[in-house]
Amino acid sequence: MKDALASGVVRLMARLPLRLLQRLGMLIGALIAVWPNKQRRNALLNIGLCCPQLDHASQQQLRNRNLREFGKTYLEIGYLWLRPAATVLSLVREVRGAELLERRNGRGLIVLSPHLGAWELAGLYLAAQGPTAIFYKPQKYLDDLIRAARARSGAELAPITAKGIRVLVQALERGEFVGILPDQEPKANKGAVFAPFFGIPAFTMLLVNRLARKTGAPVIFMFAERLAADQGFRMHCLPAPEGIDSDDDLAAATALNRGIEQCVATCPEQYLWPYKRFRKRPNGEAPIYLGPYDDRQTLERIDRLREQLRS
Question: What is the value of pTM for the model shown?
Answer without folding.
Answer: 0.95
